[in-house]
Amino acid sequence: MKNFKQSFFAGLFSVITIGVLTILTYKTDFGIFLIASFGSSMVLLYGYPESPFAQPKNVFFGHLLTAVVGMLFLYFVPLPLYLILPLAVGFGVGLMIFLNVTHPPAGGNPIIVIMGSVSPDYLLNPIISGSIIILGFGIIINRFILKKSYPKSK
User: Under a CB-based contact definition with an 8 Å cutoff, are residues 110 and 85 in contact?
Assistant: First the structure.
């Protein structure tokens, strides 16, 4: 029964969170708030909030760091696409682990950034603003609705 409750609420709160990001993206003029890797973040944020990978520091800085890495490779590494994609992902993953901000869904951000040839504005919207929104929902839902200790205290 616990597994059903956990999976039900993880799915429900994922719908709510991604729904808000989708509405902000497509029904307002505020910009882009939604990226594919945020969908994967929902698995950790609502399914396994006690995981170190789901903690706010990891979610925020994991997404930001790997998006910055993707941009650095996109704009400053003059190599063919088939080389910069794996190099950027590897560098981003390595940096997340080295800096102790590992958030597995963020490992895909360099691919999103490079394949989409995004502008530097992408760091503000959707990376920073979207991460803050999903973390806000994560804290409200996990702490106040589900009564879980989130963020996990050390």
Answer: yes
